[in-house]
Model the fold of this input.
Amino acid sequence: GGDSDGGSEELVLTPAQLIRSLEQAWLNEKFAPELLESKPEIIECVVEQLDHMEANLKRAKRGDLKVSIHRMEIERIRYVLSSYLRCRLVKIEKFFPHVLEKEKSRAEGEPSILSPEEFAFAKEYMANTEIYLKNVALKHMPPNLQKVALLKSVPRPNLDSFVFLRVLERQENILVEPETDEQREYAIDLEEGSQHLIRYKTVAPLVASGAVQLI
Done:
């Protein structure tokens, strides 16, 4: 659609860069406490890349050592891709009302946290949960308690949890503990290549922008 025009220039990636972007997205997703922005264009390109690699393999000579190396590489990429998508589905199931709320309330032009398929999955999951609760749990409760507020009853992602990260681009003046009153806000510089253990909330924008990599 129209929204792809803006992002199209960054996606002229070499296959190696593409796989690296997938791996970065996968590690960030694995270690971030919340569902991150969806990366449909990376997934689309990786799937095309895999098809391309499969096609090349079919043309290769049998018994060629390169074939088994390529086959292993294809398996590895498939593993990362399916692990990444599964990791996202687990988070959607865990936090579905909050994820849907965030998706509904995002501003025009803000990146989506759900792919269209994930959005459909989340809505269906929510509908099924509501039906299940009505039929099973709520039947036996007094009528005034039967209205179930899923946003209240499903835990939110814990953005205060700590994450390990590696700095890819130097950052200056990152506020580390903005909440505490008694302690004056203290800021640190994140040097390129350095590793830190930091509260996720304070570095979430840097994870989103790709300046740091969760590890």
Notes: The radius of gyration is 21 Å. DSSP finds seven helices and five strands in the chain.
